[in-house]
Write a structure and sequence with these properties.
About 35% of the residues lie in helices and about 20% in strands. The protein is α/β, with parallel strands linked by helices. Strands 1, 2, 3, 4, 5, 16, 17 and 18 form an 8-stranded mixed β-sheet that branches. A 5-stranded parallel β-sheet has the order 9-12-13-14-15. The chain has a 3-stranded parallel β-sheet with strand order 6-7-8. The chain is globular. The structure holds zinc ion.
Length: about 425
């Protein structure tokens, strides 16, 4: 036997007894039938994850983790474990979020669970809401007063001058009055600075908005560019609502980092090779929001065959973009869309992406986009203990990403599904 082989055998013998070793003080153990530590790595079967002080301290085959004395998470054990999900397109605009600074913690916790944590979201990007209110909600979560996800917010979006989109006209007048519609570069800079000074983490621009009757309002290119430059100067991302392909071109011109939708409007449905190549070259991320299209078009009374065509076009945009190496970021527009179930989004994404590409859009891609690969997005020693426990393997069917048994944030369960039949 070579010395190397001997060393391996000795190491294996030591590891085999590790599970009977004492776990670190205050640690929590989660066992799993399978662990996907990252979308591009082979899974670990019969694994375990040890967490302490909100971080992962060990992950591996269950018989190699020092687990004696660790606390347990009951019903969370035994599922398929993946890293915590990011939903990169949500909104805290429904009346249930109003008065987030004073509303009872239990109410807000229930609302957060219903919209977000029960679906596995441990980080969310709010892409438009009243900035003070969302910052107040975030502060209460950060203080540990309310169980909820980590919140990043774009605060108040900027619209074209006289350019509130037709689909927002039903919102309360007090809310509409808050929305900046800058008519000059100075007004745009003031709006961006005020929003970021109040705690926003990004700037959202509506570069063009439908006004009804086929009319469209455009944000002037110098206004969009100035807003984006000021945001980038602070090291923060620019999120753009494109509306259609012309809007993507305006977003590129402005210096967008993330497009918050695929496109269904306008005369052209296909993102041609040149456009896709340009988006990839500029490292622009895209949030598909595929489920939203059916929801919007059906609500507008569009005939079923046209809805399917538009949805198919958006799926094709995503397929071509991903195939060219583009960064897809999962997002559903919940909060604007009152149906919170992500299962349909996963089903539509699966027409364009593999299950592991979808996992990347939920985990590693957003971590990379927010330059936080060192703290989240994968299951590895030293990273945040943000985890999702699924009932069934998403590699077999991407809809299984919607079957969440437990959501764990910083080592603590923030959602546990009730027992089956109970
Ligand atoms: Zn939205």
């Amino acid at each position: 036997m070579t010395r190397l082989a001997e060393a391996v055998l000795i190491a294996a013998a030591l590891l085999a007894t590790a599970c009977s070793e004492r776990a670190p003080e205050g640690s929590v153990l989660l066992t799993a039938s399978r662990i996907y530590t990252a979308p591009d790595l082979p899974p670990i079967d019969d694994g375990a994850i040890l967490m302490q002080d909100g971080r992962i301290v060990a992950v591996g085959p269950g018989d190699q983790i020092a687990s004696r004395g660790a606390a347990r998470l009951g019903r969370c054990d035994g599922g398929i474990v993946v890293a915590g999900f990011q939903n990169s397109h949500v909104h805290f605009i429904e009346p249930k979020w109003d008065g987030a600074d004073v509303r009872p913690a239990a109410d807000l916790a229930a609302s957060l669970r219903d919209m977000l944590t029960r679906h596995g979201f441990t980080t969310v990007v709010d892409t438009g809401s009243r900035v003070e209110n969302t910052v107040a909600l975030r502060a209460r979560i950060q203080r540990g007063e309310i169980a909820g996800p980590r919140i990043l917010t774009a605060g108040l979006p900027l619209y074209p001058e006289n350019g509130i989109p037709v689909y927002l006209r039903g919102m309360p007048a007090e809310f509409l009055a808050l929305l900046p519609q800058p008519g000059s570069v100075d007004a745009a800079l003031a709006a961006v600075q005020s929003n970021l000074d109040r705690g926003a983490d990004a700037t959202k621009l509506f570069v063009m908005t439908p006004q009804g009757g086929g009319r469209v309002a455009f944000m002037k290119p110098d206004i969009a560019r100035a807003a984006a430059d000021e945001t980038h100067r602070r090291g923060l991302p620019v999120l753009v609502h494109p509306t259609d392909i012309e809007g993507i071109e305006l977003a590129i011109e402005a210096g967008a980092d993330i497009l918050l939708h695929t496109t269904i409007g306008g005369g052209k449905a296909v993102w041609d090779e040149g456009l896709v190549a340009q988006m990839v070259e500029l490292d622009i991320g895209v949030v598909p929001t595929l489920k939203l299209w059916r929801y919007e078009l059906e609500r507008a009374g569009v005939p079923a065959d046209i809805v399917e065509q538009a949805l198919g076009d958006a799926v094709a945009q995503m397929r071509d973009f991903a195939a060219a190496g583009g960064q897809v970021l999962f997002g559903t527009d919940v909060g604007y869309m009152s149906d919170y179930d992500p299962a349909e989004e996963y089903r539509q994404m699966a027409r364009a992406l593999t299950p592991m590409q979808i996992l990347a859009s939920l985990t590693t891609a957003p971590a990379a986009r927010w330059k936080e690969e060192g703290s989240r997005g994968r299951i590895a020693k030293g990273l945040d203990a943000d985890l999702v426990v699924l009932d069934a393997d998403p590699a077999e069917n991407a809809a299984h990403f919607a079957g969440v048994r437990c959501t764990i944030r910083a080592g603590q369960p923030v959602f546990e599904a009730p027992p089956a039949g109970g």
